[in-house]
Amino acid sequence: MPDTTADGAPVQETPEEELARLRNQVYQGELELEAQRRASYIIAEQLAAATRARAPAPAEPKRRNYAAEPTAFDGDRSKGRAFIRQCWLHMQGKPEDFRTDNDKILFILSWMKLGAAAVWAGNVTQQFMDGDDPYPSLVDFEADFARNFILTDEA
């Protein structure tokens, strides 16, 4: 409430008093603004720290796989060992793509595209499609592959 005289009339400020009052208001406004800036800065720092804490580690650059894809296999027993080695080399070059034995088995089956190999792979694939898991491990698959497609003196 503004100051008043004894008769209730408002007291008139001198120009110097008005200037001082206005300067004080500006100064108080600047103090409030500086407090808000500090609070905003603290909040921004906290947000940045929380974001850094949650950010995933940068992904490693994808390795280039220099191992060629295998040649389509036709079931020729004299080429069975070479085919399985080609598959192994390719899978070793892309470990992120072949994390499980089933990933590896399905990859090998997908390259058994011709002749007797295609028939055998088709039968195994059908077992997978029917919900069966014909091979508990890659070792079991490779043993069956060797019985069917690697010459006896090579196995």
UniProtKB/TrEMBL annotation:
Q: Which parts of this chain are annotated as the region Disordered?
A: 50-76
**UniProt protein name:** DUF4939 domain-containing protein
Organism annotation: Exidia glandulosa HHB12029
